[in-house]
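Q: What would this chain look like folded?
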Amino acid sequence: MFFNLPTLLTWARIVAIPLIVGVFYLEGLSAGEQNLFATVLFVVFAATDWADGYLARRLNQTSAFGAFLDPVADKFLVCASLLVLVHMNRADVFVALIIIGREIAISSLREWMAIIGATKSVAVHMVGKLKTAVQMTAIPFLLFNGRLFDAIDTHLWGTWLIWISAVLTVWSMVYYLQKALPDIRARSR
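A: My prediction, written as structure tokens:
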């Protein structure tokens, strides 16, 4: 269904993008307040990724549209946040290119595999889920960009985690390409 609770939560991730970006353009807020608001918004909206899937299964409201929109919303949220972080010199442009490039490549691969009827060979794998979890941890750390509980340097941890996620990004891309290769070869003949 186009509009049910799980799908509305997915749409909320897309709507969140201008809110997260816009926080950094609000006048009257200190840099620390902007960082905190952006971080809270990201964490709240990133949590909808878990909630929409859980509710779709629990309420028996799964749909093909929801299955399509969910990863699109995740990619929009991550890519927009990465662009903000690069703009603010909190993330390396090379990391952003790796992550965004992989998302484009794997989305294209999945679309092609759907056309040739081989979607199972590029089904979501644990390495892809791990990559997403590390990204979703690194980004709020980098958005916060300060000391958490006067002990955790979120910029340092976020930088390490975003680079780890870049490595996992490449690893997951290679994994999906290897899984798809036999079907690609079979269909190319």
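The chain has six helices and two strands.
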